[in-house]
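Hey, quick one: can you model this chain's 3D structure?
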Amino acid sequence: MARETQAVAPHGGAAPPDIIRDEVLRRVEPSAAIRLSQAELTLRIEQFIAQIANERRLLLNVTEQKTLAADIVDDMIGLGPIEPLLADETVSDILVNGPDRIYAERRGKLVLTTLKFRNDAHVMHVAQRIASSIGRRIDESSPMLDARLQDGSRVNVIIGPLSVQGPCISIRKFSRAVVDFSRYVELGTVSRDLGRALEIAARCRLNIIISGGTGSGKTTLLNALSRMIESDQRIITIEDTAELQLQQPHVLRLETRPPSIEGRGEVIQRDLVRNALRMRPDRIIVGEVRGPEAFDMMQAMNTGHNGSMSTIHANSAGDALARLENLILMANTSLPERAIRAQITSAIDLVVQTERMRDGVRRVTEVVEVSHMEGETIALTPLFAYRYVGENADGSLNGVFEAAPAKPRFLTRLSYFGLADAFLETLGAPKARAA
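Sure thing. Here's the predicted structure for all 435 residues.
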């Protein structure tokens, strides 16, 4: 139910909605409310609203009573006025920039909604409820919070004095829909040949890094690639916030732990990657490499854990490898740069670059092979690239996914799985047996 209105528009001399709301909250015992289902609580609050309206001689119709009741329930057990956005499957991000500016992202575009909080204190109340649900706090002494909602959605909260305009909440919604490559082709994210090439790469256990900016679709693409993993493999996923949705039966999901209120007990991704290596994994999937765990991830890829995958924030495939190098230096500053680059070259087979373009569509813009070392630098071989052609009348972009007829160094591995010729066909290259 999409409800982008602000509670009640009372008639004539009716009291403000906040007065009715406050009176209802005084009459509802919190301990009793917790024991009720949402439907039961809503019915109870509707009865209180009708009773208060009668006592105060307020004219409220049934629709107004139900709307106000739903808003009060959202305040009591949900996230207030943004609860309808959480229920809306077309919304991927919710951004609260203070009490009266709530944005939602639909189909890659941010729009300002008509929803509003009552004031900063109302936003703060919701933020504190999120924090308390995971045993954390958000206040002036701890003004930033990373958390996860019960449905898996990621939440970031920042308040004053760090945020000048008051409490701000950013929510990246957890999507239960797993997109496959046939759907990607329909959406224009990949071409049919590019989609087939990525499917083969994942099935043949190539080590893949997915690179892109925030909201470019990296995790969704990682989920799609993971569908190609055989059901008999032991997979360990490592994430700051669990978002991956692997369908295989033998999956162990590991998640980092932030420090407690006392500042103790933190478990970072590097700890989990190191521990995962002792758990006999076939593949290790790190949701996002962002720190010294990059070194351990490269070690894993170089020691028989083929088919491992991860994502990284970067603006191009070349930038992704440069950033990976810097992250490895954070973990082991004694290694010379050439040794780090040689390790990266040996570990990674493909870098897949994603981008959310100005028409809101998330596209794979380039796929490159990490080929070999040329002196002190890593040589990259382009396999696919998106080329912009023009723009349609509706604002959507026209473009083509161009393939380069190369023969990658991992062709032997593709041959082992019997898929070398199929991969070369996607590139328009001569078949391996005809070479």
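One thing worth noting: The radius of gyration is 26 Å.
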